[in-house]
Amino acid sequence: METRIELEPPTFADIVAARAFISPYLPKTPLVRIPKISEELDCDYYAKLENLQPVGAFKVRGGVSLVGSLTAGDAPLVTASTGNHGQSIAFAGRLFNKRVIIYAPSENVNEMKMQAMRDLGAEVRLHGRDFDDARVETERVARAVGFRYVHSANEPQLIAGVGTMGLEIFEDLSDVDVIIAPAGGGSCASGNCIVAKHLNPKVRVIAVQSDAAPAMWHAWRNHNLDPYPTMKTEHEGLATRTPFALTNKVLWPLLDDFVLTSDDEINDAIRLLARYGKQVVEGAGAASLAAALKLGDELRGKRVVGIVSGGNIPPERLAKLIV
């Protein structure tokens, strides 16, 4: 079970400060209306294109915010990741001259993400069958040798960085009605919750996860941090078995709804975003659209933002989906 921790989530002011810090290093990402999907859903559907970040995923916001806050001379950084979080810490480690070691699962890995982490200067070590196996080993190693363990969600400075995308959403679409965010560890959904509920409490924030890896959904629904016994999703960005304490501390009081979609529905959304949005999107990045299609009439007439959290899909997988 995830350990309950006493860390406090970032405040709205922390997110504003994080934006000032990361803006010299990271671009503001586009928010684009997709006409064909808007027509299909009978709403105004916008995609927040985090797949256009330097590492192809939103998590780099949190990586730059967190690693940039560490003082010179700190111990090497060690973390666990299936790819995008690891790339974010590796990117920030290179930016701020920090040694980075990343543990990744040895099964069902996205080799493109593994190589991208290495290309950014990180040492990648493979361990275990899935993310949670890799995470447990990372925590053991950090304790044993005194490295600075970077949790993929239980880091206030990381969530603050991720929340900066919410500021951009409201800057570009101040009258947004609904924000849909994918949830693996929950930093994306929680960061957007903090911003949305501060700027306009009427905005609905909805999280989405694969029904083949529903640990976060169960945690939100039952208000506990019990691991879920199975994790079978093919979409590694959503592939967690253990819900995390800090993000749930945000989501339990602030999140409006949580949707489960199938891996097949997510694959359909990948195809739609390629065809109508002209975007290359990985499974986690397409999950928001999959949820929107499932919600259907609930979104009619509304201004909806679906967060495209990442675009790091292996070319061969994308090719199979869009033929």
Provide a brief overview of the structure.
Helix content is 45%, strand content 15%. The protein is built from 13 helices and 10 strands.
Description:
The termini are far apart. The chain has a 6-stranded mixed beta sheet, sandwiched between helices. The chain has a 4-stranded parallel beta sheet with strand order 5-4-3-6, with helices on both faces. The mean pLDDT is 95. It is globular and about 55 Å long. It has helices at residues 12-22, 35-41, 60-67, 84-95, 111-119, 131-145, 156-172, 187-199, 215-222, 245-254, 263-276, 283-295, 315-322; strands at 31-33, 44-49, 77-80, 100-104, 123-126, 148-150, 178-182, 204-210, 257-261, 303-308. The chain is of the alpha/beta class and 323 residues long. The chain contains 13 helices and 10 strands. Helix 5 (111-119) links the parallel strand 4 (100-104) and strand 5.
- Helical proportion, percent range: 40-55%
What is the residue-mean pLDDT, rounded to a whole number?
Answer: 95
Distance between the termini: 42 Å
- The counted number of beta strands is 10
- What would you call the shape? globular
The largest sheet has its strands arranged as 1-2-10-7-8-9
Which parts are unreliable, with pLDDT below 50 for 5 consecutive residues or more? none
Give the strand content. Answer: 5-15%
Radius of gyration computed on alpha carbons: 18 Å
Q: What's the SSE pattern?
A: HEHEHEHEHEHEHEHEHHEHHEH
Total count of helical runs of at least 4 residues: 13
> How would you characterize the largest beta sheet?
6 strands, mixed
